[in-house]
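Chapter summary example: a protein plus zinc ion.
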Amino acid sequence: MPDDLLLRLRDFHEDYFPRHQQRFQDLVAQGQHPKTLFIGCSDSRLVPYLLTGAAPGELFLVRNVGAFVPPYDQSHGLHGTMAAIEFAVLGLKVERIIVCGHSHCGAIRTAYEGAPDEAVALKAWLRLADEALLPVQPSPEALCRTEQRAVVLQLMRLMDYPMVRRAVEAGHLTLHGWHYVIEQGEVHVFDAASGAFVPASESDHSGTGPYLPYVEHDGQVIE
Ligand SMILES: [Zn+2]
């Protein structure tokens, strides 16, 4: 039986890499300087590089089931997502954080329906969506709304990270909530002013976080 994965590794090395070799070598020589931290659901249908047109070196990625951000109080224990956020903001000094959920998210559905008893970590993890759940039967519409509410909930949790809040208030960092609708091939971006998700084709921005503008001592608002 041919080993498909091995063939793909060879394709990358023999086909893609030679055509982009200089870029990879520059990224090694100069280090990575991504401007964006992308927190996305692990779902295989969400492909951040396709959505954003990003090249190697442009996205610092952290993915988990549901695209969740654990609370900063560490009540959920050691967590790689927290470490990635700290590294991206304090070390890489990223200028944007995107939280990207999506349609037909298995994490959100499972948050309503319950995970198998053996999935101890998954059960605990999905409780991070509790505040986004609606007191209704999970219809397709309710699931969609919950997916979007979960994105906003993570943006709010991000603002509890002191280094995130500091950078946002200083105007060095922006937060972007996205809901990728797979069947439409379109990201809907969260607009904090209207409290709604707007299709990218109709939006005049790529998403705004749920934070208040920073106000200087003299009352001047920093945009
Ligand atoms: Zn998902």
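Key point: The mean pLDDT is 92.
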